[in-house]
Amino acid sequence: PRAPRLMPGRWADKPTMKPETTAEALIDLLRLLERAEIEVWLDGGWAVDAVLGEQTRPHKDVDIILRVSDLPRLREILKGQGFKAKDGGTEFNFVLADHSGLEVDVHAIIFDQDGNGLYRMENGSDWIFPAKGFSGEGVVQGVRVRCLSPETQVLCHAHGYVPTDKDFQDMELLQERFGVELPRQLRRNGV
């Protein structure tokens, strides 16, 4: 039997017509991957909203973390849903997009014997996701989802890029709800 089609991402109601990954599209994606027995953890903006239990802002894409061994199946399943790789990226980090603008930012890891996730970055260096970071749970539209823990989300945001306003907002929400300590670079004005 043919796999059900994903609901397309909804276009945000704004003059710029930027694509938005809706909660419905996210749940459809997660259910599709679950049926294929691909275990994923949310990262990025949707992970923040999942641990908060509510959507706090629109999301351009969904960031997922999965095992390197699941990449071939992921690519096959999403290709069947009309997704294609965007230019750029690496073997372990790339973006898949469909015709409606739905984007999946893929981060593939290898678990070590202690449960830490080894991620090869674009510059060739390795990033280690701590094992306890994979214990995060959240809720999107009443559906329980796996995601990075609030502490690990802060850790990931503190390294590798310059935070934007939405990153500051996301981190402030995690601090307010969970009391996580924000490093200086994740505080507005470095204060």
Structure notes:
The chain has 191 residues and is an alpha+beta fold. Helix content is 28%, strand content 24%. The protein contains five helices and eleven strands. Strand 1 and strand 2 form a beta hairpin. The N terminus is likely disordered.
Q: What attributes characterize this protein structure?
A:
disordered N terminus, globular, 191 residues, two-stranded antiparallel ribbon, seven-stranded mixed beta sheet, alpha+beta
Topology, pairings included?
Elements: E1 10-11, E2 19-20, H1 23-35, E3 40-43, H2 44-52, E4 62-67, H3 71-80, E5 84-85, E6 93-97, E7 103-111, E8 117-120, E9 126-129, E10 137-140, E11 143-146, H4 150-157, H5 165-178
What does this entry show, briefly?
By secondary structure, the protein is α+β, with helices and mostly antiparallel strands.
